[in-house]
Amino acid sequence: DGLPRFVENSFLRIAVLRHGYFVTPGYDGSYSMVDRDVELFSVKDFITYLPRALQLGLFAPFPADWLAPAQSSGGGIMRRVAGVEMLGVYFALVFLPYALWRWRSRVEMWLTVAFGAILLLLYSYATPNIGSLYRLRYGFLMLLVALGVAGVFGAWRDFRNSSRFTFSLKG
């Protein structure tokens, strides 16, 4: 591909980690495995898989998984808890673009987004098991969720302070 060897080797390490989930006893037959047919052999494969990796990193587990049967006795409860949590995540992420636009000139915001998004993507590429991904990506996803929550409050403040919004209890 014409990339430096250390870059190629980094992609290879991620691909090997991903493949390990498919052959490791205990994971190989797991219900929460996704994209079993996807192998990442080249940088082009990684680029092609990018939209799906983002989807998994930001939004998994998906609503269809929240009520699905679980393999373990406590797994069903955890799926429902994850569903409630993901509703909050989805709500916050709706406001992430607003936060990005509102604070677009703040370098620290872009550094936080880059850090969280890059590490979230690395875990999404390397971890085809949604249960494991859910736990591993948590801190990095919460960085983006926190910015989304800041966007909620920023949007609310902007809405309240706009000249179009006038509300009085006196009537």
Count the E strands: 0
The percent of residues in helical segments reads 55-70%
Q: Would you tell me the overall average pLDDT?
A: 88
How many individual helices? 8
Report the β-strand fraction as a percent range: under 5%
From the spread of the alpha carbons, the general shape counts as flat
Oligomer: single chain
What is the chain-wise order of helices and strands? HHHHHHHH
Note down, in words, how this protein is organized.
The chain is an all-alpha fold and 171 residues long. It is 69% helix and 0% strand. The chain has eight helices and no strands. It has helices at residues 5-23, 43-59, 63-66, 75-94, 96-102, 107-126, 130-136, 138-161. The radius of gyration is 20 Å and the shape is flat. The model has no long low-confidence stretch (mean pLDDT 88).
Topology:
Layout (H helix, E strand, L loop, with lengths): L4 H19 L19 H17 L3 H4 L8 H20 L1 H7 L4 H20 L3 H7 L1 H24 L10
Features:
171 residues, mainly alpha, 69% helix
Compose a concise summary of this entry:
With 171 residues, the protein is mostly helical. The protein has helices at 5-23, 43-59, 63-66, 75-94, 96-102, 107-126, 130-136, 138-161.
